[in-house]
């Protein structure tokens, strides 16, 4: 797919993908894709990332069921960042929060401001 | 400031910062900060980035006047990405669009879906 080849990947072949809830506009998370994970995402209609730590493809929700159905894919002016709007099932964060950005600087330190939807123990079975 | 030291910077000492319009929720851009640019941002109340291409600090809006007044700074679960909500003066994109993510994949190619607020020639004088 031509636009996949036009993107600017970093030296590891990755491009950051900002994931935004399509309905609420909440920024849910950021993760990395390579060209193949982007192609798999488009083909399946759900997000597939590249795990930098595990060095493997990672279909969001494959363990938790918290899949992200893709509504749109946008590209920034430099073609080095993606913005993907999704319908998120359940929490986006593996810690059970709706968004991974659940901590906010209050002027002195980080405080929890996010909404925890589920106990992560119940999702991943304590793994 | 302690939370600045707790963040996980990449091998270049940088952390990506997603910039979101505080009122509309529109994701405006993504750029990179190092610890000092984040400290400068907090001290000034406006965003200061690190330009990877020019290798210098870059106060958003210093040429264009399109400054970003910081409303909140959040950190993700891995502490390796920032989400900064701002009041954006004018367009965020140097190409004159409200958001840098002005191109969207239509299933075949990228099409312009963003709203151009100003002609970039009038902002940067053709530079």
Structure notes:
Two copies of one chain form a homodimer. Chain A has 127 residues and is α+β, with helices and mostly antiparallel strands. Chain A has a four-stranded mixed β-sheet with strand order 2-1-6-5, covered by helices on one side. In chain A, a hairpin with a 4-residue loop joins strand 3 and strand 4. Chain A starts with a helix and ends with a helix. Strand 7 of chain A pairs antiparallel with strand 5 of chain B, so a sheet runs across the interface.
Approximate strand percentage of chain A: 25-35%
Note the total helix count of chain A. Answer: 3
Shape of chain A: globular
| String of helices and strands of chain A | HEEHEEEEEEH
- The percent range for helix content of chain A is 10-25%
- Oligomeric state, counting identical vs distinct chains: homodimer
> What is the number of strand segments of chain A?
8
Label the structural class of chain A.
Answer: alpha+beta
Question: Tell me about the biggest sheet of chain A?
Answer: 4 strands, mixed
**How confident overall, as mean pLDDT of chain A?**
94
Task: Compute the separation of the termini of chain A in Å.
Answer: 37 Å
Any low-confidence stretches of chain A, pLDDT <50, length ≥5?
A: none
List the helices and strands and how they pair.
The structure is a homodimer of 127-residue chains.
Chain A: H1 2-6, E1 15-21, E2 27-33, H2 35-44, E3 48-51, E4 56-59, E5 68-75, E6 82-88, E7 103-105, E8 110-112, H3 120-124
Parallel strand pairs in A: 1-6
Antiparallel strand pairs in A: 1-2, 3-4, 5-6, 7-8
């Amino acid at each position: 797919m031509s636009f996949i080849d036009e993107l600017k990947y970093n030296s590891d072949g990755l491009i950051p993908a900002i994931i935004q809830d399509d309905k609420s506009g909440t920024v849910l998370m950021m993760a990395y894709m390579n060209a193949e994970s982007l192609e798999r995402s488009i083909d399946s209609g759900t997000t597939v990332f590249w795990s930098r730590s595990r060095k493997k493809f990672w279909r969001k929700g494959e363990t938790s069921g918290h899949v992200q159905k893709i509504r749109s894919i946008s590209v920034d002016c430099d073609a080095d960042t993606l913005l993907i709007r999704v319908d998120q099932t359940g929490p986006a964060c593996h810690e059970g929060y709706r968004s991974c950005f659940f901590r906010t600087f209050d002027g002195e330190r980080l405080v929890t401001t996010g909404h925890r939807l589920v106990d992560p123990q119940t999702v991943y079975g304590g793994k």
